[in-house]
UniProtKB/TrEMBL annotation:
This is Protein O-mannosyl-transferase 1. Belongs to the glycosyltransferase 39 family. It catalyses: a di-trans,poly-cis-dolichyl beta-D-mannosyl phosphate + L-threonyl-[protein] = 3-O-(alpha-D-mannosyl)-L-threonyl-[protein] + a di-trans,poly-cis-dolichyl phosphate + H(+); a di-trans,poly-cis-dolichyl beta-D-mannosyl phosphate + L-seryl-[protein] = 3-O-(alpha-D-mannosyl)-L-seryl-[protein] + a di-trans,poly-cis-dolichyl phosphate + H(+). Its main location: endoplasmic reticulum. InterPro entries: ArnT-like_N, MIR_dom_sf, MIR_motif, PMT-like, PMT_4TMC. It comes from Probosciger aterrimus. It is an enzyme of class 2 (transferase).
Length: 728
């Protein structure tokens, strides 16, 4: 029974020494002197703020993309024991001793280092020679811009790592498809493709471009699988379901899970709360939650409420009134109703409180039991402090003359009767009998007499003049002009009014609210809202000293100064290896010209290269040229501030194309031994120039040694490069 113990257990391991050596070289190039400089480098000032907020569990929103990349950077801070206490206020600021610089920069550096062996393996899986694969890896290794970007607390190297991992995983899966379908390895690489794609998208939305490319390639490959008559219909269905699970369902589930972890970690209120809805804010610890915790859930007749505009842009504001009236005549000569002003006020104030009144009764307190207000009910809104009714009529608004003025009605005993009835419409209702709920319900107030909708128009216009204290305008907007979020309001603070006398009611309005009903927002509701905010929130794009256009990237007519030593001339720049960038452009041009030539010749039934070489040429172009195109061309349609580092994912695919074109020329265009020898010598000379440029620009890649003024001037190979030279 134990006979198997008579023989030794033998484990055979194959080690690819090329991969091991390339990995080691990548680690040395990216990890060497990683803590230098011990100062904030360029966008570390941006990402560092988020790392600190993670350490303190404070909620934030970053409109640049999903949270996975930020969480990886925060993981580095967590592993290094960072407490989050550092003021990320300027580039070049010296890090205090509590900031684990090496740990914070470690994960981007590791990702950048692993891109070197990944490049090697991708070309091997594309069926190119190990020599070509080695060339691709060395080009990634010696590309100065990739080194610079991976040595700091930035996201591009992590993004490129997951992009290359996704490409490699899919190629391994595709090569196994031919002889090992549904094997363990087949499943592993297919699933890893989906995981890597999800991680790439989770780091930056730029990863979506490569994900779409791989989905397209997978779709084309599956189209060929459908044509395989050796496969049964059941097998085809299994293939389809496996790809759908691994390439769509799992990536989507992982993407959502990134937000789940993000929201689980960031449970405390913070500076970014105000752009979220009241329901979201109330779900966070502290902040609004301290005010609203335990408020009554159902709004009833007699409820005292504050109404927050749902849009929340450019700032949150609440329906507000005060004793001042609209001027009899505006500056342009138009007349007003001279009624009490109603505005949207961006600060919490006792004048934001309103009382929900039943038009058929006089009482301003909640009955026992409370009578809840439902969708479609008619109400009057009474201003808590002045006791005047919310009103609108056919008078032009002060800043929006095509909309109706909204006021609190003052009876001047003239022929302008009060029109103060409003119909409550719950926008996010589940049925027409829904009860109006605190925080959760998003409502519109439709004026009964004119069908105008209560709207905060200050978001699209200017604030009121001095007579309106620069507060935002509120108008009655006709429904025919369409739906807009500025027409939607939600109850933020709420209490059941109990005071019958006005003086007692004013004291009540000034007091905090404390009741017994809590409101919990589901994860999917929070995820949906946060995702929508990320996609729609736009910071004002300002011209940056180092911003550039997409056209500048191809020829590297721009650079970015990342850091300058405070006393010496030591500095770090995002500058690429000029020879590699030029070679990548030439390789792309040669590939497209040769492909066009081959297509024309094949149309004429002339086949210059064997069919297997043609298929290899096309598949390699689909990955490399396609990867370059999808990661570059979309930037021409983007309205955002662009920087040179946005080009790095596209550049990586272009670099992979260089050895592919070189091997193709050597194998199929150099027909004689002499030509092959000359071409090989040319490649050696070219690669020597690549290494020479790498060494030349290493001082501004690593930030040391410090160069003299003359040496710095010698590095300005293009007049458009901004090499920093101190005044003597």
């Amino acid at each position: 029974m134990l006979g198997f113990l008579k023989e030794p257990v033998v484990v055979t391991v194959e080690i690819n020494m090329n991969v091991m050596v390339l990995t080691l070289m990548g680690l040395i190039s990216r990890l060497w002197g990683l803590s230098y400089p011990r100062a904030v480098v360029f966008d570390e000032v941006y990402y560092g703020q988020f790392v600190s907020l993670y350490m303190k569990r404070i909620f934030f929103v970053d409109d640049s993309g999903p949270p996975f990349g930020h969480m990886l950077l925060a993981l580095g801070g967590y592993l290094g024991g960072f407490d989050g206490n550092f003021l990320w206020n300027r580039i070049g600021a010296e890090y205090s001793m509590n900031v684990p610089v090496w740990s914070l920069r470690l994960l981007p550096a590791l990702a950048g280092a692993l891109c070197v062996p990944l490049a090697y393996q991708i070309l091997v899986e594309l069926q190119f020679s190990h020599c070509a694969a080695l060339g691709a890896a060395l080009l990634i290794l010696l590309e100065n811009s990739l080194i610079t970007q991976s040595r700091f607390m930035l996201l591009e190297s992590i993004l490129i790592f997951f992009i290359l991992l996704a490409v490699l995983s899919y190629l391994k899966f595709y090569n196994l498809q031919k002889h090992s379908s549904f094997s363990g390895s087949w499943w592993f690489w297919l699933l890893l493709t989906g995981v890597a794609c999800s991680c790439a998208v989770g780091v930056k939305y730029m990863g979506l471009f490569t994900y779409i490319l791989l989905l397209t390639i997978a779709g084309l490959h599956f189209w060929h699988v459908i044509g395989d008559k050796n496969l049964s219909n059941v097998s085809l269905m299994y293939h389809f379901l496996a790809r759908g699970l691994a390439l769509i369902i799992i990536p989507v589930a992982m993407y959502v899970s990134f937000f789940y972890v993000h929201l689980t970690l960031l449970y405390r209120s913070g500076p970014h709360d105000q752009i979220m809805t009241s329901a979201f804010q109330a779900s966070l610890e502290g902040g609004l939650a301290r005010i609203t915790q335990g408020q009554p859930l159902e709004v009833a007749y007699g409820s005292q409420i504050t109404l927050r505009n749902v849009l929340g842009k450019p700032m949150q504001c609440w329906l507000h009134s005060h004793t001042n009236t609209y001027p009899i005549r505006y500056e342009n000569g138009r007349g007003s109703s001279h009624q009490q002003q109603v505005t949207c006020y961006p600060f919490k104030d006792v004048n934001n409180w309103w009382i929900v009144k039943d038009p058929g009764m006089q009482q301003l307190v909640v009955s026992n039991p409370p009578r809840p207000v439902r969708h479609g009910h008619i109400v009057q809104l009474v201003h808590g402090i002045t006791t005047r009714y919310l009103n609108t009529h056919d008078v032009a608004a002060p800043l929006s003359p095509h909309s109706q003025e909204v006021s609190c009605y003052i009876d001047y005993n003239i022929s302008m009767p009060a029109q103060n009835l409003w119909r409550v419409e719950i926008v996010n209702r589940e049925s027409d009998t829904d009860v109006w709920k605190t925080i959760l319900s998003e409502v519109r107030f439709v004026h009964v007499n004119t069908s105008a909708v209560l709207k905060a128009s200050g978001f699209i216009g200017a604030s009121l003049p001095e007579w309106g204290y620069r507060q935002l305008e509120v108008v009655g907007e006709k429904l025919s002009k369409g739906y807009h979020q500025s027409m939607v309001w939600n109850v933020e603070e709420h209490r059941y009014g109990k005071s019958l006398e006005q003086k007692e009611r004013e004291v009540e309005l000034h007091s905090p609210t404390q009741m017994d009903i809590s409101k919990n927002l589901s994860f999917m509701a929070k995820f949906t809202e946060l995702q929508w905010k990320i996609l729609t929130l736009k910071n004002e794009d300002t011209e940056h000293k180092y911003s550039s256009s997409a056209l500048d990237w191809i020829t590297m007519d721009t650079n970015i100064a990342y850091w300058l030593h405070p006393t010496s001339s030591a500095q770090i720049h995002l500058l690429g290896n000029v020879v590699i960038w030029a070679s990548a452009n030439v390789a792309a041009l040669v590939y497209m010209c040769l492909t066009l030539w081959y297509l024309i010749r094949r149309r004429r039934k002339i086949y210059d290269i064997p069919e297997d070489a043609w298929q290899l040429w096309v598949s390699a172009g689909g990955i490399c040229v396609g990867g370059w195109a999808v990661n570059y061309l979309p930037f021409f349609g983007m309205e955002k501030t662009l920087f040179l580092y946005h080009y790095l994912p596209a550049l990586t695919f272009q670099i992979l194309l260089i050895p592919i074109v070189l091997q193709h020329i050597s194998d199929h265009l150099c027909r004689s031994v002499l030509l092959k020898s000359m071409f090989t010598a040319l490649i050696v000379a070219w690669f020597s120039s690549v290494y020479f440029v790498y060494c030349t620009f290493s001082p501004v890649t690593y930030g040391e040694p410090s160069l003299s003024v003359t040496e710095l001037k010698d590095l300005r190979w293009k007049d458009s490069w901004n090499i920093l030279i101190r005044k003597q």
